[in-house]
Amino acid sequence: MEEGSMSGVRTRFAPSPTGFLHVGGLRTALYNYLLAKKEKGTFILRIEDTDQSRKVEGAMENLVDTLEWAGLHFDEGPGREGNFGPYIQSQRINLYQKCAHQLVEEGKAYYCFCTLDRLEKLREQRIAAKLPGSYDRNCRDLSKVDVQEKMKRGEPHVIRMKVPLAGELTFSDAIREKVTIAYAVLDDQVILKSDGYPTYHLAVVVDDHFMKISHVIRGEEWLPSTPKHIILYNYFGWELPQFAHLPLLLNPDKSKLSKRQGDVAVEDYREKGYLKEALVNFVAFLGWNPGDERELFFLEDLVKEFTLDRVGKSGAVFNIEKLDWLNFEHLRKKPEPDVLCMLKDHLKRSAVGDKHFDDPYLLNVIRAMRERVTFVKDFVEKSPYFFQSPKEYDPVDVKKRWKPESSKYLKTLGEEFAALATPTKEEYESALHHTAQTLKIKNGDLIHPLRLAVSGMGTGPGLYDILFILGKDETIRRIISAIEILY
RNA sequence: GGCGCUAUCGUCUAACGGCUUAGGACGGAGCCCUCUCAAGGCUUAAAUACGGGUUCGAUUCCCGUUAGCGCUACCA
Questions:
Q1: Residue A105 shares a structural domain with residue A142
Q2: In the annotation, is A259 catalytic?
Q3: Do A340 and A460 lie in a common domain?
Q4: Is residue A322 part of a domain?
Q5: Closest residue (CA to C1') to nucleotide B67 in the complex
Q6: Are A215 and A242 spatial neighbours (Cβ–Cβ below 8 Å)?
Q7: For chain A, does the N or the C end have fewer beta carbons within 10 angstroms?
Q8: Are residues A143 and A230 in the same domain?
Q9: Which nucleotide is at minimal CA–C1' distance from A314?
Q10: Which nucleotide lies nearest residue A191, CA to C1'?
């Protein structure tokens, strides 16, 4: 529990509770988690809800739930108070206000009374004139008297930070090395809004400082505003954290990963039956790799091997095929009892939910189908015949495999099976061979129609495995009804 | 428009100036195995965006071009 005391590394995942956890967010959270765990540090969840209008009911609970599902347990955060809480920004407003006013007193920030309307017009003008920036620093040099007067009149106001007028700022990033930006292209950013809430820029700096965050690992979209944050750190006289800006996750067409082109919520993948192991493994490799050719990693392996310097710089396309493959691999690695549990759970919610199948039976199905399924649901979708007798027979296979003599052959074979007590796979096989011999036909002339008769389709595990799993009575029943239906 | 970031097979990526005929994985194609489908094994097609430098030598370093993306809010 007190792992944090072992190391100065403290990372945080700081989402805003505006909806579901995005897969990009999952990766950001994962990298933060991995670095913290690797260094025996502390992983923190902080909720950035300073925009009252964007708050979504239940979003925070959902975020926590999804993070926990993925196995990214946070050491400090909402409901898990450490020594640096509260971890929800709306509960820390006093702190931000104090900090903002301190900056005003020190001449590093100022009150701005410009109306939204004026700002909007200004922006339009600037765009039309093709000038950079959007605020003209109108209130930057307001006299003390003016400010007092406007305050007295109760004019709405914000606090803006003073960005140096000339010069440039260079900062280092763990992933991109040096980044330089000229002060002139930076606006006097609002740090405290008229409703008294801070903007992201103030809140993130204040919180990262007071929560003693050592590494700020976040998406690349924050790179351009990092200089503003650094100015703030300098104004406050605080030590800078290590910054690491992660490359973006992209759609197949290379645009920023978004809905419309597929699912972006972790929850969507969870519902589709993706394993958390696969999703975590997949997302970890979008921008990171261990440097050798291993690809199958569990969370614990990632913790051992993760380093920031192996994180790439360029955006990565989220391609489902590879995720599917990883899901397949991870499903194969799952211990049988776990798979059994998942299968039973899935069965309950499926069309055959009212039927009971005992564990040994299901285990047999699992063993037979394992290397043929990508998702747990595939056990039912790809081999429905293990859960109900065939309702129909695949026409393509019927055409290909069901010959006029098939009924006659299968009838004989059924009789042969009937004479067996409780046949093993091998006994089914030799019975079939024997029947073929007496009938003077090829094994295949029995095998294919039989597969069709018991499963309704032409694909699946070894035929004798199917027969054994189904059992003699069921096998014979299916042979009889196939003969009736397929004539 | 301005600013920034990025640029190796279709995709994820390896290569941290020479050991490279640029390696692996997913996906594709083919073959083998085989009662089918898988799995597995083998084989194969497929990339250093372009142009300049630096260097004895550039995928690797620098510059430019191009392209993509991001940011440019009293959103995060």
A1: yes
A2: yes
A3: no
A4: no
A5: A254
A6: yes
A7: N
A8: yes
A9: B6
A10: B74
